[in-house]
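Table S2 (text version). Query chain:
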Amino acid sequence: MKLISLAFKNCCTFVTMQNSENKIEKVLQKLGIEALNEMQLAAITACKSEQDVVLLSPTGSGKTLAFLLPLLSSFDPTITNVQALILAPSRELAQQIESVFKSLGSGFKVNCCYGGHPINVEKKNLSEPPALLIGTPGRIVDHLERGSFDPRDVKTLILDEFDKSLEFGFQEEMSTAIQFLHGLKKRILTSATEAVDIPAFAGVTSPIRLNYLGESKQVQGLTIQVVRSPEKDKLDTLYSLICHLGGHPTLVFCNFREAVERVGDYLAENSIANEMFHGGLEQRDRERSLSKFRNGSCNVFVSTDLAARGLDIPDIKYIIHYHLPVNEEAFIHRNGRTARMKAEGTSFLLLNKDEETPIYFKKEPDIFEIPVRVPAPASPLWITLYIGKGKKDKLSKMDIAGFLLKKGNLQKDEVGIIEVKDFFAYVAVKREKVNELLRTIRDEKIKGMKTKIEISD
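Corresponding structure-token output:
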């Protein structure tokens, strides 16, 4: 009997593994991914084990997919409570994880909770609990203390970019959240740096440790150059450099919120379309900035280090360090936004006459001389429209696209990226068509609803 029982158990284990591999294979086919990278394969194997996992891997290496794919085989469709919880240090990262999970087409429900989002709406969403709940530490604690969902079936906890959560001061919130998770079986911690110790409150014991950070310091396809400003104030040199680079996607890093505002305002006054991004902005303003950069309505994105990790933004051609990064790790994370997936990119250090290259440079980068002053780049091809209805109004991307094609008389190639939020939406439209479009649809209803449709400021 024991032999039969053991054989049956081994057979079930083999079938489960086969089903799990088949699920992942189908998902990859749907996403158009031919093969996972070495880190992702190792992470998936580790996450399927009974041990805790600590995954260290560079920004842009695919960590999100690496920890989401194993969840597909861990979820029990008969359980109606939350089964896995992901804590992320920023709203944008939480939203990005949610977006990636939805793209998997698993059939399991997912919800995302974060500050700046109406908590009553979130609580209503949680009345029918998702299999996967994603959120920022403070907001998740709010829901746990309010009893918005039952945490007893949460078996897996993922602390994504846990070092950033510690840096942002979320120790107490993360610790409090974990105290509610009495049925926890597995902990997965991810980070793009190994400089931070694992906090004791995480309860990680004898983890499988995967370290792929060695790859981050030798980024293939990345060129680093120094641009010297003759003046201490580098704004004029920054402007000249951006003009020379043309209309390619460019990310400008500053160390302070006030500097982001100053740089962004200066560029706008000099006809450089740009968006600003930092932690002091309202959530809606941050979402608008990201949407406009993603859809090509602007090509220059001025930000603090908040944009160095955890944002869903397009491939960046150029990185400009308006301010020197605080340390080597910050420099690496910033540069991780370019030269990704075998692409090429350039990182410029903008230094005035009193600034020296950082001590962690093994050799001095080449000096880049801005040839001659050229005019500001042409306006971006796209412009963003704001639509005053969203998911909660049952408005979808297909509804918006159909409306613009039928009622707005646009062609398919004149409609760009569409992003639908809970209560509003953004859509990119070819710049030369937008004025005529707004006149055409002025008195039209979208999906039977009269709503505001205007150029997003």
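Notes on Table S2: The radius of gyration is 24 Å. Residues 1-26 form one domain.
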